[in-house]
Design brief:
216 residues, 5 helices, 33% strand, alpha/beta, Rossmann fold, Jelly Rolls, nine-stranded mixed beta sheet
Length: 216
């Protein structure tokens, strides 16, 4: 399965990003607009850069356009899609079935919420999208998932419906278990759960869940 790293123009903790990338390998790296700044600071060379690039320092775009092997997709600032959506479309066109995004939550709240909704859109198109920042890992589940305490991103695991409802939700091995429950969009019932032991799992019969692994 081809994996893509997308670096957006949102606020990125570079120390966290360096640690996150250590030991991870990607088939493709896409920089979204000012994400090109973070890519350079991290010592990475993107395969593709997309956006309007209106937030780059003067001369930086031309500097990178002279680097062999980088594909540029330049858009007008007056466009219908955000730069993050353009980056996901680029990853999809290149055949990537999974994408990790850095910078999707830092900065403006409208972009953060929009990026979470993009996760759902591309999940429906067959792409597994995960969003990371220093405290959170976000991803979607549509059938089942297994959890091991030593592999979790943080102590807490929250489950939020992305569809109107999630039916037949079962949580085993958690401090707050569920057995074939229906959870509707807009409820906070499944916020801040935790594993009761070393392992747990969830199953659901219908719907899509946003899973958030987090720590204080």
């Amino acid at each position: 399965m081809k994996r893509c790293l997308i670096v957006t123009g949102g606020s990125i903790d570079l120390a966290f990003a360096e640690q996150f990338l250590r030991g991870r390998a990607y088939d493709r790296i896409v920089a979204a607009d000012a994400g090109l700044l973070a890519v350079r600071a991290l010592g990475l060379t993107p395969d593709e850069a997309v956006g309007d690039f209106d937030s780059l320092p003067v001369g930086m775009l031309e500097e990178y356009r002279s680097v062999p092997g980088i594909c540029f997709e330049i858009h007008s600032p007056q466009k219908d899609e955000t730069d993050t959506e353009l980056a996901l479309l680029a990853a999809e066109r290149s055949g990537c079935a999974a994408a990790d995004i850095l910078g999707a939550l830092g900065g403006r709240m409208d972009h953060a919420v929009g990026n979470i909704q993009l996760m759902y859109r591309f999940y429906g198109r067959g792409m597994d999208v995960s969003i990371y920042d220093p405290r959170n890992r976000l991803y979607l589940v549509g059938k089942r998932a297994y959890f091991r305490k030593k592999e979790l991103y943080g102590r807490y695991i929250s489950f939020l419906p992305m569809t109107e409802s999630v039916e037949g939700l079962t949580l085993k091995g958690f401090q707050y278990p569920l057995d074939h429950k229906t959870i509707c969009l807009g409820t906070s019932r499944c916020i801040s759960n935790e594993l009761a032991g070393e392992e747990g799992y969830l199953e659901l019969e219908r719907g899509v869940l946003l899973c958030v692994e987090s720590h204080d």
